[in-house]
Description:
Elements: E1 3-6, E2 29-38, E3 42-47, E4 50-55, E5 65-72, E6 78-81, H1 92-98, H2 105-116, H3 123-133, H4 141-153, H5 160-171, H6 174-184, H7 194-202, H8 211-224, H9 228-233, H10 244-262, H11 266-272, H12 277-280, H13 286-300, H14 304-323, H15 331-341, H16 348-359, H17 364-386, H18 390-404, H19 422-431, H20 437-452, E7 455-457, E8 461-468, E9 479-487, E10 493-506, E11 510-519, E12 522-529, H21 533-538, H22 542-551, E13 555-563, H23 567-571, H24 577-580, E14 585-590
Parallel strand pairs: 4-14, 12-13
Antiparallel strand pairs: 1-6, 1-14, 2-3, 2-5, 3-4, 5-6, 7-8, 8-9, 9-10, 10-11, 11-12
Helix pairs in contact: 2-4, 3-4, 4-5, 5-20, 6-7, 6-20, 7-19, 8-10, 13-17, 14-15, 14-17, 15-16, 16-17, 19-20
Amino acid sequence: MHHLSIQSSQGMKQAQQPQQERNFRPGEVVTGKITKFFPDNKALLQIGAKKVIAELQASLTAGGTYWFEVKEGGERPLLQVLPQTAGKQADVSQLIELAGMKPNKTNRSLVEGLVKQQTAFTMPQLKQALNLLQQKELQPVEVTKEGLQLMLQRQLPLTESVLHAITARQTQDMTASLRELTNTVPVGSDKATPLQQMLGKLAPVGPAVHEQHLIQQIIQEAKSGKQDMYQAIRPSLPAAVPSFAAWQGEWLAYDKQMDESRSVPQQLMKEAGSSSNRSAGIMPYSQALDSFMSEMQLVGKQSPAAQESLQTALSTVRQLLSMFPDQTLPHEIITGLRTALEPFQSSPMAQDIYSQLTKGNVDNQQLLAKSTELLQLLQVTQTNEQSKDGDFFKNLLQDIFRQTGFSYEHDLNDADAADMPLKGLLLQHAAQGNERAELSSQLLQQITGSQLLQVQDDKQMAYIQLQLPGAPFGFDKDIMMELEGRKEADGKLSSDHCRILFYLHLPFLDDMVVDMYVQKKTVNLHIYTAEGKAEQVMRPLQHKLKTALDTSGYHLSSVKYTVSKNAKEASHIDTGSNALHIEQKGVDYRI
């Protein structure tokens, strides 16, 4: 067979643009076209998007396209011309036949996509991919084809299990899977299993509560003698409700215990297994606090307008009942309160009042007490929501990442059995042969697929993709994030030069993509939405965003809004070969 030896031109120093060099791997298949002849047996050869000058030592035809296989890599790769039918141009059908497979529309479509994207592959890899493509029991053909192309781009093992994981990650919503599994493994019993507890964290009924802020507020009030938080949480306390003095004493003792634990060196804390406030000390009334936070999540998932409407109605009822405790409330007041309560039917506290109003047997004293309790709950919920700052979301992201188990295998040796992430719990659940184990397997595949696609590295840049459950943020769908950043000398991403994309599905604005580009600490935002209402809602918040960025040492330069039905495609970060290697000309090839 004909061979060609390739070496770099003296006119292009490798040190100038090392990230642009085309590195061939042994066994890799490439296609090249002879476009023009020159004197001294030289010709213009095009390989992919690159045009190079080549010296001919084999009998090739002008205008001909050939398949080559890399026999040796390194600085002087050696290419071998693959057999082809005499008198015919090299096409994908010939390559498929060389792989021992029968050409058809589906096979050709896969190989044509690989060639167009300049995806590197070997003949054994091509055969494995084509075999997987034929398996009817897998995902729809288009989904399988896209999964295989991605696996070859990332050089992932071409196995059925990896393909299942990739397609699950690409086509399924983790938030929906978590909620479906939660419905089959109910959360909230007194003897909740670790899996039930973890599902409660990753698939809550409403937005995540700023727990640490809540605890700090309780302790501050305990120190000052205020009873606002005590009265708000009191309905969630056990039947034998402690006095305020007992409540105050236990929280002050807990705060002292926490102060002592903070003085212990961090390494000793880690060795002792203390990773949070809850584990560092025995939190008082933890079960009541969990119950109260669940109520906060239930009322917090409703719109601000609905919360404000209910607060107004409750305040009116309380005022009237306080002034005229023995008089029946006017019909329009009762109707208004019942209407305001309708969106909050998932909250037991709200449902209790609504049921009392619907039945018509209103007890003024009881209604006053319950209205006061619900109003206190709403006020604490709003205060807690307002306390969600950058640190809250940073900590929440870190918690979700750890709790989901994206670094499960890496952390396996240091894992605490009492703090096992979701992936480990799902593996146990599936191994035990529990009912609806297929739901556990489905969620496992999604987590594994996210792990496989999480990081793509080269020498100077890093690309990170994250798919996180949206439920803890109050979203109905997953949060997708793509990060592209320049790597510092220590391997970390530069926070001064990066691009981050957030793919969100918001309760009131629907699908949205936020494209954040940071250059020398100057921030430019491009917001894509399917509808035009986002700008009206978000523009009043720009000053607050600018102030927050200024405080962090960044400058908000511009915010642009675009209405697009295909926002994800319009803003996608290209991490393929074209993104990493720009076209080169003038490289001397010798064939």
